[in-house]
Amino acid sequence: MSAFAAVRIPSPVLVGARSAGEKPCAPFVSCPAGHGLHRTHVRSTRLGRPLLAVSSDVLSGQKSLGSNSSPSHHAVVSREEALVLYEDMVLGRVFEDMCAQMYYRGKMFGFVHLYNGQEAVSTGFIKLLETRDSVVSTYRDHVHALSKGVPARAVMAELFGKATGCCRGQGGSMHMFSAPHNLLGGFAFIGEGIPVATGAAFSSKYRHEVLKESNPNGLDVTVAFFGDGTCNNGQFFECLNMAQLWKLPIVFVVENNLWAIGMSHLRATSDPEIWKKGPAFGMPGVHVDGMDVLKVREVAVEAIGRARSGEGPTLVECETYRFRGHSLADPDELRKPDEKAHYAARDPIITLKKYILENSLASETELKAIEKKIDELIEDSVEFADSSPPPPRSQLLENVFADPKGFGIGPDGKYRCEDPKFTEGTAQV
Amino acid sequence: MLGVVRRKLGFGLLSATRVLPAGSVLPKKYSTAAKEITVREALNTALDEEMSADPKVFLMGEEVGEYQGAYKISKGLLEKYGPDRVLDTPITEAGFTGIGVGAAYYGLRPVVEFMTFNFSMQAIDHIINSAAKSNYMSAGQISVPIVFRGPNGAAAGVGAQHSQCYAAWYAHVPGLKVLSPYSSEDARGLLKAAIRDPDPVVFLENELLYGESFPVSAEVLDSSFCLPIGKAKIEREGKHVTVTAFSKMVGYALQAAEILSKEGISAEVINLRSIRPLDRATINASVRKTNRLVTVEEGFPQHGVGAEICMSVMEESFEYLDAPVERIAGADVPMPYAANLERMAVPQVDDIVRAAKRACYRSVSMAAAA
């Protein structure tokens, strides 16, 4: 959108991964995997039509599994898988709602960015990962942390700034790190996580090829989450280039919620179809309905599978929406109510619940039991965080360096420089 | 609470006659019924007036237009000047800073807003290499009349990546002018001066000061009001110890001076206003009068503004010093998130009071172990 034009150019049509009536095909229609440069399969993007929403055709119009529609229209999920997905999304939603409450009560402070509405993306991807796989996120990272396995208590305590948080209160909402869960942050600067994720994928490939540490199940995969605003940043393009050049095991997941604080994606981007930027660098680019966890999961299976087998990166654009403002300090005045209402009707949790019930994968009581369990878990995490001590004064100067004086760590696990014999020159080194 | 204290101090200043540093444009006396405006309004009106006076001035940055400014500094400007002069940019600091510098090469006068100066690190190549060094590299053919502005330093609970103070970083570079206002009068006068200046200016504001009100005289509200770049202001006169500070720390220093005056120590508070060029004349004149110096800053201690001031005083006024220079700075750690740790990582009024007493040999020094 030209800043110098007085006329608003109507936005191009955003088309879903598959629209009703189209012949069912593999998710990666934009580019066959494994080939070099190729022409993108152009779905018509005609200017002049207003922005259309793509409705989830897994759940609307379809009656049950085994119907006459093609099975590749949605992932076949077992009961266990469906319940895992449901529980994870409910965990994310209830946690974020509790964060909002705690913020307004003054227990949380600073910048807090909530993930309400986007749960399908986090759950759809992260629940397919193993512990050895890494996740890199932005400041909107609470739910990514929870999906990756960081306990709700640790995340809540971190948000309260307590010593029992996952980063001992030193990171905060925007900087969630967890080495045991391979959650590599939590970055406040948008675009900053993408090169870091690319580096993690590089180290995975390096360990496999140079250090010969192979896992029979394939490479460790990295999933990088970032937003639509980030896709205009130079670092994004630089990493797309290098990831494809070196065939790194990474999945770039764009959580396109159409807004960067108050800047609409269409006002900031010359070509708003982000998935197209993948093929420009030689990797597959997919657009998927990010409000439908089953569709996201289906795409994720392929993308993660590609990465794990060493075929290289994928760019996945998930059309999603955040129900709340950019952060809890955002008055959220620029988004139109009908847009919000439209996406609220496509709430991923409600959609999955409907699917589960319609396909008799679980009963209403079981789902309610899950919700109750999550409520109790979150209440417990708040109590835990509340009763945890704040960090002690001595913690202020800790952790600046891993090895402050540079003399290394001795055999007993303590810093050598703290051993008095060391400074006298009589210690066994 | 802070505002009440400030109002009291403000009125105290207004009714006393002061000896003004040479070159100041301030009148000698204000009427005590002065109007009060917030720093936010001061910046907004300064931008507004400069944009209306010169059509080459334009504003670009993230959320400056429809969102009315991430901190509402550019409120109303989009309606008044249109999208051609108030540009909402995508999230591309390196890109839009470079575009601003290029526009400045060709005679336009961009004001580039960073949502916080932490994000300027993504664009620092353009600020230093394209903007600061161009006049020198082109032997004076290309001057870059650009202003980079935005909040700098710590806010409240925003974590390590949003809280760094960049005064020392930018003041290190020849070719840049670095300003840091404290009050509304500083904000208005210095921003106008920065926009009119033909060189690149880094304008470091402070998010927590945006909502603070300060009394301003009628002269400050006039649209041709301007403060000189490179002149510090003596906010409070004193005899026993000089305290230099900039931005939010000036408020803390003034509070500390109030506390010290009750104990018989009269502190002279200097509001630096301009970090580069540093007003060495004013600082040295003050040290020659009081013989003791405490420098206060919010940023990291090593290679900070205080280090430079100390060296300047040693070079020029060594014989006048009766005590070692005390340096108060933020803790030498990335800013922690937890509220109690954050309070410890930023200088507080007590730290300034204790340092002043140490400089006056009123208490025993306790070196903080790192």
From TrEMBL, chain A:
Q: Which UniProt keywords apply?
A: Oxidoreductase, Pyruvate, Thiamine pyrophosphate
Domain Dehydrogenase E1 component span(s) in chain numbering: 88-391
Name this protein carries in UniProt: Pyruvate dehydrogenase E1 component subunit alpha
Which SUPFAM superfamilies is this protein grouped with?
A: Thiamin diphosphate-binding fold (THDP-binding)
Q: Which domain of life is it from?
A: Eukaryota
Q: What is its EC number?
A: 1.2.4.1
> What role does it play?
The pyruvate dehydrogenase complex catalyzes the overall conversion of pyruvate to acetyl-CoA and CO(2). It contains multiple copies of three enzymatic components: pyruvate dehydrogenase (E1), dihydrolipoamide acetyltransferase (E2) and lipoamide dehydrogenase (E3).
List, separated by semicolons, the cofactors it needs: thiamine diphosphate
TrEMBL record, chain B:
Gene Ontology biological process: pyruvate decarboxylation to acetyl-CoA
Q: Give the main localization category.
A: mitochondrion
- Sorted alphabetically, which keywords does the UniProt record give? Metal-binding, Mitochondrion, Oxidoreductase, Potassium, Pyruvate, Thiamine pyrophosphate, Transit peptide
Q: What would be one Pfam family of this protein?
A: Transketolase_C
What is catalyzed by this enzyme? Answer: N(6)-[(R)-lipoyl]-L-lysyl-[protein] + pyruvate + H(+) = N(6)-[(R)-S(8)-acetyldihydrolipoyl]-L-lysyl-[protein] + CO2
GO cellular component assignments: mitochondrial matrix; pyruvate dehydrogenase complex
Transketolase-like pyrimidine-binding domain boundaries: 37-212
Enumerate the cofactors the protein uses.
thiamine diphosphate
Question: Which SUPFAM superfamilies does this one have?
Answer: Thiamin diphosphate-binding fold (THDP-binding), TK C-terminal domain-like
The protein's enzyme class: oxidoreductase
Spell out the InterPro entries in the cross-references: PDHB_mito-type (IPR027110), THDP-binding (IPR029061), Transketo_C/PFOR_II (IPR009014), Transketolase-like_Pyr-bd (IPR005475), Transketolase_C (IPR033248)
What GO molecular-function term can you cite, just one?
Answer: pyruvate dehydrogenase (acetyl-transferring) activity
Q: What is its EC number?
A: 1.2.4.1
Q: Where in the cell is it found?
A: Mitochondrion matrix
Subunit:
Tetramer of 2 alpha and 2 beta subunits.
Q: What is the documented function of this protein?
A: The pyruvate dehydrogenase complex catalyzes the overall conversion of pyruvate to acetyl-CoA and CO2. The pyruvate dehydrogenase complex catalyzes the overall conversion of pyruvate to acetyl-CoA and CO(2). It contains multiple copies of three enzymatic components: pyruvate dehydrogenase (E1), dihydrolipoamide acetyltransferase (E2) and lipoamide dehydrogenase (E3).
Instruction: State the protein's name.
Output: Pyruvate dehydrogenase E1 component subunit beta
